Structure formats: C-alpha cells, structure tokens
TrEMBL record:
<keyword id="KW-0238">DNA-binding</keyword>
<dbReference type="InterPro" id="IPR041222">
    <property type="entry name" value="PriA_3primeBD"/>
</dbReference>
<dbReference type="GO" id="GO:0006302">
    <property type="term" value="P:double-strand break repair"/>
</dbReference>
<dbReference type="GO" id="GO:0016787">
    <property type="term" value="F:hydrolase activity"/>
</dbReference>
<feature type="region of interest" description="Disordered">
    <location>
        <begin position="99"/>
        <end position="125"/>
    </location>
</feature>
<keyword id="KW-0639">Primosome</keyword>
<dbReference type="GO" id="GO:0003677">
    <property type="term" value="F:DNA binding"/>
</dbReference>
<dbReference type="InterPro" id="IPR041236">
    <property type="entry name" value="PriA_C"/>
</dbReference>
<feature type="compositionally biased region" description="Basic and acidic residues">
    <location>
        <begin position="105"/>
        <end position="120"/>
    </location>
</feature>
<dbReference type="GO" id="GO:0006310">
    <property type="term" value="P:DNA recombination"/>
</dbReference>
<dbReference type="InterPro" id="IPR014001">
    <property type="entry name" value="Helicase_ATP-bd"/>
</dbReference>
<dbReference type="Pfam" id="PF00271">
    <property type="entry name" value="Helicase_C"/>
</dbReference>
<keyword id="KW-0479">Metal-binding</keyword>
<dbReference type="GO" id="GO:0005524">
    <property type="term" value="F:ATP binding"/>
</dbReference>
<keyword id="KW-0378">Hydrolase</keyword>
<keyword id="KW-0413">Isomerase</keyword>
<dbReference type="InterPro" id="IPR001650">
    <property type="entry name" value="Helicase_C-like"/>
</dbReference>
Length: 719
C-alpha cells in the first residue's frame, strides 16, 4: 500500500501518515486535503512510500489540491529549518504557503465589442466610443475618458448589447531583467569579487561568500554585476536579495530597475496580500527572476535558485523572535546549501559568526578596498563629555553645536544619531520616584510629544500623558527623563531656529512610502539637520551629508549583553559611515562619557580588525559564540506558579551531556509582559556538540502544561 507523510500546520514534531488510494497520483511537495478528526486540513506531502500490507488503519488522503506543487528544495528546506529551530515542521511548511493564502487580486472588468451588433441609435458620442475601442477591450471608465464622453454613454452601449463586460484575471507579468541594460564599469576589487561569485554560480553547487567592504566601497555594485552574469549564463536563474529593513527596499529596487531595465518582485509584510499571491505564483512558475525581500522571502518556492544575497548580514533584524524563531542569515546559508546555490553575505561590519566562518575558510572572503571613486571615510573624533558637559536638560555639547553651525553655514547637511524613539525614554514622578510602566509589563513608558502619548515600545500599549501621578496622586509632578530623537530635535530648533529639521524614526516614518519621501527630501537638500534613530543609519546614501553627530555613543554599551560591544561597533560604524559619501569629505563626532572604552577607541581609530580581535579573544575565553553555541528556553504564562513549576521540572531533568552547561532557571530579561511571567533556561555548548539533539532529548522528558508556552531560541541574538 502507498503511504504519504503529510505536514499539517499543527504544533507537533512529526508529519502525519495517510493511505493513498491506488489510482491517486501523489508526489512529494503536493498540497493535499486530509481528514483530521472531524475536519479536512490542508497539508504538504513530505514523503510517499510503499509499505507492505496494511500495518495500521490509516485514514486516506482525501484529494490532491489544484495548487502548485512545492519544489523539492523548498520541502527539504522547510524540513531542515524545522529540525534546526526545533519547530513543528507543519508550521514551518505553512510559512512557505503564506503567499497562497492571500486572496487573488480582483479580476479587472473591461468592455469589448459584441460581434455583429450595431447601435440602434448611432449618436456622435456612441460612434466616438466604438471608434476609440476598435477591436480592443478596455476598462469602461478609461474608454469613456479616451473617447471624451461621459461614462453613461458606455453604459448605454452595454445595456443595448453592443458592448459586453468581461472579467480578466490579473496575472502579474514580471519583465525579464536585461543583464546588459546599463552595466557599470567596476574597479579591480569589485570586478574580482563579482567574477568569483559569478564563476561559482556558473559552476553550480553550494558556494558561500563574505563580501566585506566599508560603507560606500561598492558592494551593491559588485553583487549586481554577479546577478547580471548569473542571468546571462542562465536566463531562467532566480536570485533572492534579502534586506534587513523594509525602508531599504525602495532604494535597491530603484537601482535594480536602472541596472536591468525591469522591476524585481518585492516580498515583505508591507506588500498587499493579493500582490504577494501574484509573486508567490510567479516564483513557483519560474516567471520571476529577481526577488527583493525581507527574511520571510526565504520560504518562497523557488524552482531555479542560483544566488542569495544577504545585504547588511550583521543586522539583528534578520533574527525573527516572534512566532517561528529563526535567524534569516543562517537560514539563507542553509537554503543555498540545499539548493546548491551561491550565497553572498555582504557587510561593512560583518558579524563575528561570519568573520569566524570566513577566517576558518568555510566562506570565501571577498574584500573591497577603499570607498568607490573620490569618496573617503569620515574623520571620526570622540567628544569627551567630561570636558564638555552639555548644560542641564540639554544633550548637545559646545563642540558638537559649533560643528553643526559650521556645517549649516557651508550649506551642508547634518545627521544627529540617537537610537531612541520618542521624546524621553522614561517618565518619572518627582514627588514619589514612581516610574511609569505599561500595565503588567516590566518595560517603561516612553513619552512621545508629537502624539502627546506615553507608549510602551514592547507591547504597543499607549495612554494619554496623565495629569497626576498614578502612584501618589501628586499633580504636575511627572517629568521626562533623558533624551529621545524628538527631544534632540527640540533642542536643535532652539539652537538653530533658521535650520530645516526633521526626525527619522519608525514613528515619523511608519511605512516605506513615508521613508522614501523623507529620504528624497534629504537627498534634494530640503533638510539641514536630520535627527534619526537606526532607521536612517543604515544603507542610505545622502550626498550632501558631511557631519554625523552621535548624541550618546555609550548608549548600547551599557547593557551587559553578549553582543553589546559588537552591536555598538556595527551601529556606530553604519551611522558615521553616512557622512561624506560623495565628493565632499565628511566627519563624525561621537559624544561619550567613556572615551577610553575599547569599542569607541577602535571606532575613532578606524581599527575594525583591532576591535574584532579583542572581541574574539573575550568570546573565546568564555567559550561563547562563535566559539560555542547557545540556546534559550523561555517559559511564559499568566499563571506564575505553573511557569515556575515547569521551569523547575526542566531543571530537574537535564540529560547528561559533556561540554555543555545549563544555566537557570532565572527571570527572563523581560520578566513580565502583558501579565505573562517569563522564566529562562540557557544552554551553552561547545561548537561540536549536537545541541539540537540534546534539546530534543531534554524536552522529551518534560510535559509542558497547556497554560505554559515554551519558546525555543537556538542561537539567540541577545544573551
Ligand atoms: P556599498 O554597497 O558598499 O555601500 P554601493 O555599491 O552602494 O556601496 O556604492 C556606493 C556608491 O558608489 C553608490 O552611489 C554607487 O553608485 C557608487 N559606485 C560604486 N561602484 C561604482 C562603479 N563601479 N561605478 C560607478 N559608481 C559606483
Ligand atoms: Zn508620584
């Protein structure tokens, strides 16, 4: 008898077996309807096999659905990703079907001539309509406009049966990119990198690369050339370019359109579902070559994937922590391995993991030297705030103010960087010292002046700013403590009333369109001083920007997190790298209370290698990533006792393992969110330990009650 294993979107670790009727043709990757209890469920066939005899009473596959079959590479990838992240394979598989669950775009209604029917009363406007239409079909409103008549005339012709309304299925056409549309002339480093990637693509097989070069060195230009060569070698090649942030996609799409004379497909949460469905269907049909997307694009059903680019590969936004927990960069490498494709990790500040892999020879290390053309890296200086303390309740020191003034006089632009949304990160009561937090949550409320609200950035909770202290009832006692971008902008406006200022953060720039508009006005020179969070620090090119001021360079260094130093180094390198991207040289000033901090000293000296070496030594001494591996188990629930008990039960049943330690349970970093208690257990293992195997064995010993949610985070980003 024939048996199919079917992945069903349920939180269980295995596929379900079903009998396949003899006459039913089923293959791996097929979408099927199968009975589960009283319901029919959609599932994906992960395996079809012959078994002897009817060993068990299996239910039968109801039918094979009329939806596209998932390509083998996609099924392999989904199964691998589920094993790696210890997630349910059926749920992983259903992420690969996200695009299909969207409704189809509405069909377009058009009118066309009914053959052999002439208008009973031919008027001048009716004749105009019929002449305009000729043998075509058109939307009625467009036709009326083109014929210069009211839409009533068209409707009259439809009523008379001279025209008929037809519905046309909206099939997205993706123009074929032309590799020779507008080629660039590459410098020697770029050409060597592009060739190495292109040759690997042509040779076929898994080939991972680190593309390493300072901001503005022309990494994008280099990988676009590799894309062009991949397309020249195989016009059906599919290429996936992943970006960490939706705000960056528009600029890259514009570059791709210029380079290849065709728009790529776009895939991220900001794309309307009907459009996503069109992209999904085009990808699985091989009708679409280039996809630019967020990490979820990794689950698209590519049929001929040749190259994946992960741009800004170090960026923590590639890590997904809600729902399925995975790192987009790591999964991109896995997908390339499964598909036998090349993968390019590009960054000016690669993650230590990637540098480690490149150093060990697992990835080929491609280096781009200087900035392209005449642009040079900005001159970076530390401003010691101990010697230049800002006035009370202000955040800009005298030297930074002077630099902004000089830049304004020269007609150039300034970026003030502070990675804090809103007006003030903390609101507290002067009378009793109470700090305002969201209900049942450990996170402070952030004051937003533009909207006049206090907002919890973790849960999204918000409330009007209260008149009295919610704790002691004192009136007019609440004060905003510390600066956010809105507050720095307020100070800038007071200091430079004539300057044109703007704030760039996820609050002022909520979507891709707003981001595009603000970026464009910056490029057009309509803004003198931009105060920005990391949303603007990444990737953008502002030719007239010559001064970057980092308001609080110590900010990211304060937490004792595993990646605090690495992240700060990356973020500040990105931020300061915004200055001087074109002909005019730039400079960056970093305000700090700790100018002796090794991270800041390395930044000022432009000494990335020195920083990496020191940080690697520390990680190696502690056997932390990339020298060891981590996993976090987070238990959460409204019932604190149940959470506590489950954590204890886990702690009591740790399997014996060598070169591996378990820490905790302890309060998770955010121990209370929306009334849910959170406990955490941490695992550290040597690199060669089978961490996933250990976790599976461990979790098999403990029953987690329904009231407690267990989240497994393999290779957690923060620690
Ligand atoms: P990166 O990705 O390393 O930040 P980009 O590829 O964006 O660098 O290049 C930075 C700037 O230099 C861009 O404006 C780009 O158009 C320009 N540029 C890079 N390489 C070339 C080249 N070979 N010819 C012309 N312009 C280039
Ligand atoms: Zn109070």
């Amino acid at each position: 008898m024939k048996v199919a294993s079917v992945l069903i979107p349920l939180p269980v670790p295995e596929a379900f077996d079903y009998e396949v009727a003899a006459e039913m043709a089923v293959e791996r990757g097929d979408q099927v309807a199968v009975p589960l209890g009283p319901r029919l469920m959609r599932g994906i066939v992960s395996e079809v096999r012959e078994t002897t005899g009817s060993n068990r009473r299996l239910k039968a596959v109801e039918m094979v659905l009329d939806d596209p079959r998932l390509p083998p590479g996609t099924v392999d990838f989904v199964e691998w990703a589920a094993r790696w992240t210890l997630s349910a394979p059926g749920e992983m598989a259903s992420t690969a079907l996200k695009g299909l669950r969207a409704p189809r775009p509405k069909p377009e209604r058009r009118v066309r001539r009914v053959e052999g029917r002439e208008p009973a009363r031919p008027t001048a406007s009716r004749t105009a309509v019929l002449e305009t239409l000729e043998g075509r079909s058109m939307p009625g409103a467009d036709l009326a406009r083109a014929a210069g008549v009211s839409s009533g005339v068209v409707k009259g012709l439809v009523d008379d049966g001279v025209l008929e309304v037809i519905e046309i299925e909206a099939v997205a056409a993706f123009d074929t990119p032309d590799p020779d549309h507008a080629p660039s002339i590459l410098n020697a480093d770029q050409a060597a990198s592009a060739s190495a990637i292109a040759e690997a693509v042509e040779a076929g097989g898994f080939a991972p690369f680190l593309l390493d070069g300072v901001t503005g060195s022309g990494k994008t230009e280099a990988y676009l050339e590799a894309v062009a060569r991949a397309l020249r070698a195989d016009p059906t090649a599919q290429i996936l370019i992943l970006l960490p942030e939706i705000a960056l996609t528009q600029a890259l799409i514009a570059r791709l359109s210029d380079r290849f004379g065709a728009d790529p497909a776009e895939w991220h949460s900001g794309i309307a579902p009907p459009r996503r469905r069109q992209v999904w269907e085009a990808v699985v049909a091989g009708r679409c070559n280039i996809v630019v997307g967020a990490r979820s694009a990794l689950f698209l059903p590519f049929v001929n994937l040749k190259l994946i680019v992960v741009d800004e590969e170090h960026d923590s936004s590639f890590k997904q922590e809600e729902g399925l927990v995975y790192h987009g960069r790591d999964l991109a490498v896995a997908r390339a391995r499964i598909e036998g494709a090349a993968v390019v990790l590009a960054s000016a500040t690669p993650s230590l993991e990637t540098l480690f892999n490149a150093g060990q020879g697992r990835y080929r290390w491609l280096k781009l030297g200087a900035r392209h053309g005449t642009a040079v890296l900005p001159d970076i200086r530390l401003l010691d705030l101990r010697q230049n303390p800002p006035d009370p309740q202000t955040w800009l020191s005298v030297p930074l103010r002077e630099a902004i003034g000089e830049t304004l006089l020269k007609g150039e632009q300034t970026l003030l960087f502070l990675n804090r949304r809103g007006y003030a990160p903390v609101v507290l009561c002067r009378a009793c010292g109470h700090r305002l937090t969201a209900p049942d949550t450990d996170s402070w409320l952030v004051e937003h002046r533009y909207t006049g609200r206090l907002v919890c950035h973790l849960t999204g909770f918000s409330m009007a700013r209260p008149k009295t202290c919610p704790s002691c009832g004192a009136s007019d006692s609440l004060v905003a403590v510390g600066p956010g971008v809105e507050r720095v902008e307020e100070e800038v406006r007071q200091l430079f009333p004539e300057a044109r200022t703007a704030v760039f953060s996820s609050d002022t720039v909520p979507d891709a369109r707003a981001a595009r508009a603000l970026i464009q006005s910056m490029i057009d020179g309509e803004i003198d001083i931009l105060v920005a969070t990391q949303a603007a620090a990444k990737g953008h090119n502002f030719p007239k920007l010559t001064l970057v001021g980092v308001v609080d360079a110590d900010l990211g260094l304060r937490g004792g997190d595993l990646r605090a130093a690495e992240r700060t180094f990356q973020l500040l390198t990105q931020a300061t790298g915004r200055a001087g991207r074109a002909e005019i040289p730039g400079r960056a000033l970093l305000q700090t209370w700790t100018p002796e901090h090794p991270v800041l000293r390395a930044l000022a000296a432009g000494d990335r290698d020195g920083f990496v070496e020191a940080e690697m030594d520390e990680r190696e001494a502690a056997s932390l990533p990339p020298f060891g591996r981590l996993a976090a188990l987070i238990l959460s629930g409204e019932n604190a006792v149940a959470v506590e008990k489950t954590a204890e039960a886990l702690a009591q049943s740790i399997p014996n393992a060598e070169r591996l330690e378990v820490y905790g349970p302890a309060d998770a970093p955010l121990a209370l969110i929306r009334g849910r208690r959170r406990k955490r257990l941490l695992v550290r293992a040597d690199r060669d330990v089978d961490l996933q195997g250990f976790l599976r064995a461990w979790l098999g010993r403990v029953k987690v009650p329904a009231s407690v949610r267990l989240t497994i985070d393999v290779d957690p980003y923060s620690f």
